[in-house]
Each structure stands twice: as structure tokens, then as C-alpha cells.
Design a protein that fits this description.
homodimer, N-(1-d-carboxylethyl)-l-norvaline Dehydrogenase, domain 2, 10-stranded mixed beta sheet, 20 helices
């Protein structure tokens, strides 16, 4: 693996006033600043677009259809947003409830919607894209844009070796949160960040992709490719965003119990510390900021944990990246779906029953009740750093690396675990994420229990005596995170 | 998946007196009875074979080279057994120490050995077969036999889509134990069972394959195909032979501790019960025999555990079979080897440190100290039954199903865990097995901890209320195991 240089930046006359060239840890990226919610530039790129179709009404569909409809209206545009649903879809009533209607043609069949739209956003479930993606695309008129909000289908095409029609544009706007947040934060005048990609297409496709991102209300739009997006996404959710962090807390809870901490105390010291002060401190003060907060004794514990964990988790994380980029993880998800492999319970163990009781008893001023546990923080941050290093080594842009390894974890996902436990976090995500998390959580747990905690306990020796922590202190990630921390939506994602 | 009927039996004039048509649970298989150690029939099939090459000197190489040399001598044959090693191989001295020599040509280079032999047994590591298998095969004269002791390479060729030369025979004799046991039990006049396969070749190739099996001293040789062999082998070691049983004991140890059993007690009730009385009772009295031994209260516990475990483990085991038969598991092993994914410690957790102390304190009359734990037995046997059902549904012969799911577990592998813990069992196996066990143990552990033990504890409901235990009582496996239990080597594999 070699370090891939940051790619060229891009330009768009229509959005010139919103595009900024940003220095991130010595690399250059183009970021679109949409935070002032001026939708006027949409006129320039959607002026000749009579109709845009949103296909599907699960997570992203309702949010994107409504946001785009509202933004086009704000911009004084005639572009019609139509929702395409299968005949007999149970979602019809939901779409009608927010104003899409058969009468005015803004609610129609999938076939009608795609075949009459200049741009069609395929926001159906991954499994539906696998089985119907090519057939849906075949409905589009020549020269149309096919938009995706996730690179899964591009990854699946890599596995099957099947390409897409050459006479269409394939583009992506991938929001950094679930559909309901995309809508809610739009209504709150904040919006949610996205990454944008043009997989196939020229300047006009890029222009409309940026317009789509702006229309969603994204305060910051970062550049990526769908190939990088699906890899970092499928990888990240198996690693520290979902699977890895689940394995981590299972392992550490068992370890605290083994050291005679009572169940409630173990839950507080592990889960509550992680999703409370550790996540919040990382969010506001960064990774090194968290370390700086510790007292001398805690710093020592952090360093011991970090040095025990990093080389093991780096090795595991590299393996995971290969399993993802080879396409094997996606093949497994497709196979699991086909053969109805059960979605096992993820909060079946004792610790989550304890957790429920603990959460009930925690008052709203709970922050005062738990501190940063330096061992939990040391292993957690080592896992994040392993993820950062693997993504960078595989040529992902800094914005993607930091978003998919750190920001999404502490700002978007961990709050779900904090509110209602691990299942609430994992099972609010996509099937691909839920399956991946179920597979990788136990593997992370085993690596941590078998190879990291015994080193911290002094009953197993370290793999080597390199000072990984010194690399951490001097890492480019701190600068990158500093830059990107300022590019967050005004309003945090709230968990109800 | 449909139930595949048992295949046709086979015939061989040369070994006619040793071949028996055996009824196993209503199906018919041909089994070669070699237990009387009459090597005379070898003359008929190896009379025109001037030289047989054994390539490699790791686990199977030393055993098979010596056994065949000794058997050919007993039969009064001139067939020369030559060992082929790479130039500069560190194994040269070991081969010389048991009588193979450069001087008489019985020790030579790989190239020389294969290119001058009518039959070449490629007994190198899986990774070497992946990188060099085709090149080695290309050295063989047209019409030669290429022999394998494991179908891994056939599975890998499935993945890459690369076939083998059409002008050679591809055959297999796969011993049901590691190389040292193949040699030791030969010297003890018992021998070890094998399965035989002709992947490519006609009657003469089958004759020589049976001769190879007889020459190894196999008391019973069962029929298979290399395609079935690698699937059942790679599957079985990930399931209850290694990975599954490791996950099981980790989960159950944690569960006993959670129920306030002290560490020593938990180790005894879980591991020692499993590898002691549970394995021994299954070995001598079968699966239903074990159940019959329990008192009324224990029977109830067994049934509760069985019914909680079977549907979950059946689902997981089916998934595992798909992951194996698709080729993904082999691709992952090849990738892990290529990228040096670490072989993590498998006995790093607390329970194995406790186990070491417990084993030290156990006297030789340890049987008296532990009973059959009915919950451990119920889940363990449910896992075996899931494995049996999945293999049968995928068309594996009964002999293979019972050997790879039950007999190999209780007779060949669990004794290693009993003697020195989990790592001694797992890490005495192939790289493919060691990697697979490391991956699947945590996954089994998670399914058992998250979805089975909470049902047994009454804090989670059962998936359904079907009486899986009734299916168990009336299962064909009991008849099959009865038949196959009598076809065991005279001497058990001993663990030093």
C-alpha cells in the first residue's frame, strides 16, 4: 500500500461563490459551503431540468424528496420533484401525507418517474439495488443522471464485473446521517454534511450533483468518488463506527467485571464513559485534546492501553479493509440476505440489561457521574487511529477519513448508544451495516480480549516495543480534525 | 438446498476382497477394510510403478513417505519412494534421519522427484499449493497421478476458475488426523482412517488411490470427492471441530461466571466436562446414549438448552456453509496469508490461565471430578446436529458427515484441548484451520451469548416453539454413528 496524493480539486462556475479550496493537513480539497442557504444558484443548473425523480421511500427518500422540493421552490424553480413508488407500495400514504399526489403527477410509478426525469435518485435499499439496479437504470432516458446516496451498488458492480450504461451519468450525494436527520436538520436551517461524487459524467453532471447537494441543504459538501465512498463506508461501519466499538465495549465490560467492578460500575466506566465524556471531549477538543485533559496517572494508563492496542488493531483493520475492498464483504451481505441469515440480537448479553437500568437511573446531569476512563479511551482512540491510517494509506481524502473515522462516530452514532444502548445505534443503520456490525463486533471483541487486555494486565507481553503513542502525538490527523471540526452543521444530530 | 442421494458405490478388482458395501442409515457406501494389514494387493496396482514421489516434509510428508516405503517393502515391491524437497530445505536432515538419502536417490529435488514419478503426492502447505500448485503439476509426465491429502487446492481452483491439466489424474487420500498420528498409529499396527477420491481419472487411477490408502495403513477408507472433502473440512473446522467449540466454551465460561460459579468451577463444568465425560460418552455410546445417561432433571436442562440452541446454530451453520462453498473463506485465507494478518493468541483470556492451573491440579483419575453438564452437552450436541443437517442437505456422504461432525471432534481433536487447552488443539492444525477458527470462534461465541444463553436464562424468548429435540431423538444420525463407531482404528489417537 502506498500513500496516494490528494486528488485535484474541482471547479464549477455555477457554484463558484460557494466553492473553497481548503488546506487539510497539507493536502488540498474543494469544499462547497452551503450554510447560508442561498438556493439561487440552483436556477443555473436546474433551469432546464423539468423533472427530478426520487425512487423509494425508506430512509433517504422522504428526506431528499421534501428537501429538494422545498429548495427548488425557494429558488423559484419550476423543476418538479416526483416520487416513484412500486404499485401497491405501502409507502404511498406516507408520501401523500407530505404532499406528493397522484392527482398532480408528483407521485407515480417507478417506471413513469425514471423514464420521464432528467435526474433520478435511486434511494431504495441495497438489496433492491442489487436485484433491480440495472433494470431501473435501463428506464432512464439517454443522457440522464442516475444519482445514488451510497456507493454500495458501485461496489456490487465491481464484484459482478457488470458496468453501467455508458450513455448516462452516474453521480452521488451521500449524506453523513440517516434520512430523518437529513430532513430534520434542513427544517432547523442547519442541514447535514454530504460528500459528492461523479462516477461517470462531465462538468454538467458535476454541476447538477453540486446542485443536488445544495438542495438537500448541506452546509458543507466534500469531494469523494463512489468507489471510495462505499469502501470507507462499509469499512468504517464494520470498524470503529459500529462493529469495532461494539466489540470494544463488550470486551471492556467483561474485563472490568473480571477485575471485580460491579455490573453498574462496569457499564458506567465503559459505555457511559465512552459515549459520554470521551465522545464529547473528542468532538469538542479533538483526540489530543482528550489526552491533554488527563492527569499524570491517567496519561500513563492511556499510553499503556494505546501502545498495547494500536499494533493489534492496525493489523486487524488492514485485514478488514482488504476484505471490504476485495468485494467479499458485499458478497457476504448479498448471500446473507438471499439465505435469510438471522439478524441476531446485539444487546442480548447481561451488560445491556444492566445498561438499561443504569440509563434509567441516570439523571440529566449525568456527565458529572462518569469520568474519562483512560484505558477505554486509549483503546478506542487506538482503534480510530488504526482506521485513519488504513484509510489514508488507501488514498481516501482527509475529509472522508476524519468524517468516517472520528466525526461520524462521536457526533452521529455514539449518541444513539448513549440514549438507548447498542441495538438502538446498530439497528437504526442499513442492512449492510447491521450485518457487518454483527460479524465484526465479536472479532474485535476477541482481538481485544485475547491480545490487548492481557497485555495491559501484564500477563502477556507486547508484540513489540515501538512507541506508537509518539506517532499518535505527532500525527497529521490532529490538524485535519481541527480544520474539519469547524465544518460541522450548526445543530448537532439529536437522538429522541 | 435439496437432499442429494448417496452416490453409486465403486469397484476395484485388485482390492475386491477388501471392499465392502455398507449400509449407513439407509444409504449405501463402499468402504475398504484394510485393518488386517495385508499389503499384498499393492503388487497388482504398483507393480508397474517404478517410483512414487512425496513432495514436502511438514505434517503429512514424513508420515506418508515412511508408511508407503514400509508397506511397499512388506509387499515385496520394488516401487521406490522418493522425497522431493526444495534446494536448501531445512527439512533435508530430518528426511535423512529416517533413511531417505541423496546417495541412493530417495531424496532429491522437487523437480527431479515429480518429473520422474508415475505418482506424486503434493503434501506441501496450502499456501505453497496456491502459489506453486500448477507449476508443480506441470512437472509431471503425461498420464501421471497427482495426489493430494486435502481438497484445499481444488477449492482454490474453483475460486480462480483455473482447471488442472487434462492429461493427468488428480486423486486424493485424506487421513482423518495429523501427520504424526498417521505415522504413529501405523507403527502401532492400527493405522488411521482416510477418505479417498478420484477427482479426475479412471479405473486405474482409482486402483492406485486405493493402493495409496492401503499403503498408509488405513483400517477403513471411505469414499468422497475432493470437492466434498474441502468443503466439509474447511466447514467442519470453522464449525464444531475447532471454531464453534472454542466459541462455545468461551461463551459458557462467561455465563457460569456470571452465575457466580468460581473460575475453577466454571472451567471444570465447561471445558473439562466437554472434553472429558461428554466427549468420551459420545465416543462410546453415541449422542442419544449421552442423553440416556442423564437423570430426569438433567434431561430437562439438556432439552431446554437443545431447543434454545438448535435453530440459532442451524441458521449460523447454513450461513457458514455458504461462505465456505462460495469460495469466500478460502479467498480470505489466501488474502490473510498474503497480507500477514496476525495469528492472534487464542488462549489469551482469563479462562485459559485458570485452565492451566486446573489441569495441573487434576490427577490422572480426573474423570470422577466432573460430571456431564447438561447445558453444555445440550448446546454442544445442538451445534453438532446443525452441522450434520447442513452437510447432509448439501449431499455429503454419511461417513463424511459423521466423521467431520462427531468422530473427529470427540476422538481426534478434543483430547488436545483436554491435555493442554484450546491453543494446543487449534494451533496443531493447518493454517487454513487456524485462521478459520480464529474468525469463527468469536462469531459462535456471540450467537451463543446473545441469542441462546439468554433464552436458557429465561430473559429472552425462544425464536419459535418447535420441538427440535423430538427431531433429534428420531434422527438418522444415530444409526449412522452406530455403524461408523465400529469402523474406528483399534488404537485411539494419543495426545502426548
Amino acid at each position: 500500500m502506498t500513500m496516494v496524493e490528494a486528488p485535484n480539486t474541482f471547479e464549477s462556475e455555477a457554484f463558484n461563490d460557494l466553492l473553497r479550496t481548503v488546506q487539510i493537513a497539507g493536502t488540498t480539497e474543494t469544499v462547497m459551503y452551503g450554510g447560508d442557504r442561498n438556493f439561487e444558484p440552483l436556477g443555473e443548473v436546474f433551469g432546464d431540468v423539468a423533472q427530478l425523480a426520487v425512487i423509494g421511500w425508506s430512509s433517504q427518500g422522504p428526506a431528499q424528496a421534501q428537501n429538494l422540493r422545498d429548495s427548488f421552490r425557494s429558488a423559484g424553480l419550476d423543476t418538479k420533484v416526483v416520487v416513484g413508488l412500486r404499485n401497491g407500495s405501502a409507502s404511498r400514504a406516507k408520501a401523500e401525507a407530505v404532499g406528493f399526489s397522484l392527482a398532480d403527477g408528483s407521485l407515480t410509478t417507478v417506471e413513469d418517474a425514471i423514464s420521464h426525469s432528467r435526474m433520478s435518485l435511486l434511494l431504495v435499499a441495497d438489496a433492491a439495488l442489487v436485484s433491480e439496479g440495472h433494470a431501473l437504470m435501463d428506464l432512464a432516458p439517454s443522457g440522464a443522471d442516475i444519482g445514488l446516496s451510497h456507493g454500495f451498488w458501485v461496489g456490487h458492480n465491481q464484484v459482478t464485473g457488470r458496468g453501467v450504461r455508458e450513455d448516462i451519468n452516474l453521480t452521488g450525494v451521500c449524506p453523513k446521517g440517516m434520512g430523518p436527520s437529513v430532513r430534520k436538520l434542513y427544517e432547523q436551517l442547519s442541514g447535514i454534511n454530504v460528500s459528492v461524487a461523479v462516477e461517470q459524467g462531465g462538468q454538467d453532471a458535476l454541476d447538477r450533483t453540486l446542485g443536488w447537494a445544495l438542495g438537500l441543504g448541506a452546509p458543507y459538501s466534500f469531494q469523494t468518488t463512489l468507489r471510495n465512498e462505499w469502501r470507507s463506508d462499509v469499512f468504517g461501519e464494520r470498524a470503529m463506527l459500529l462493529g469495532g466499538v461494539h466489540g470494544l465495549v463488550e470486551a471492556l465490560y467483561g474485563w472490568k467485571r473480571q477485575h471485580n467492578v460491579d455490573p453498574e460500575g462496569a457499564y458506567l466506566q465503559v459505555v457511559e464513559s465512552l459515549v459520554g465524556p470521551i465522545s464529547q471531549t473528542i468532538s469538542h477538543e479533538g483526540l489530543r485534546g482528550l489526552f491533554d485533559r488527563l492527569d499524570e496517572g491517567e496519561k500513563e494508563q492511556f499510553i499503556v492501553a494505546y501502545n498495547a492496542a494500536y499494533p493489534q488493531l492496525k493489523n486487524l483493520t488492514e485485514k478488514l479493509y482488504h476484505d471490504v475492498s476485495s468485494g467479499r464483504e458485499l458478497e457476504e451481505v448479498v448471500s446473507d440476505n438471499e439465505f435469510n441469515v438471522r439478524m441476531t440480537q446485539v444487546d442480548g448479553t447481561d451488560m445491556w440489561r444492566v445498561g438499561e437500568l443504569v440509563r434509567k437511573s441516570l439523571s440529566s446531569s449525568s456527565e458529572a457521574r462518569v469520568n474519562i476512563d483512560p484505558t477505554v479511551a486509549g483503546i478506542y482512540i487506538a482503534g480510530m487511529m488504526a482506521q485513519v491510517d488504513v484509510l489514508r494509506a488507501n488514498g481516501h481524502y482527509w475529509s472522508e477519513v476524519v468524517n468516517e473515522s472520528i466525526i461520524e462516530a462521536v457526533d452521529s452514532l455514539n449518541p444513539y448508544m448513549r440514549a438507548r444502548g447498542i441495538a438502538y445505534m446498530v439497528d437504526n443503520c442499513s442492512i449492510t451495516a447491521r450485518r457487518g456490525s454483527r460479524k465484526w463486533a465479536p472479532i474485535y471483541q476477541a482481538w481485544i480480549s485475547q491480545g490487548i487486555l492481557p497485555v495491559i494486565d501484564g500477563v502477556q507481553s507486547r508484540l513489540d516495543h515501538r512507541d506508537y503513542f509518539a506517532d499518535f502525538l505527532n500525527h497529521d490527523v490532529h490538524g485535519a480534525l481541527d480544520t474539519l471540526k469547524d465544518m460541522r452543521p450548526k445543530i448537532d444530530i439529536a437522538v429522541s
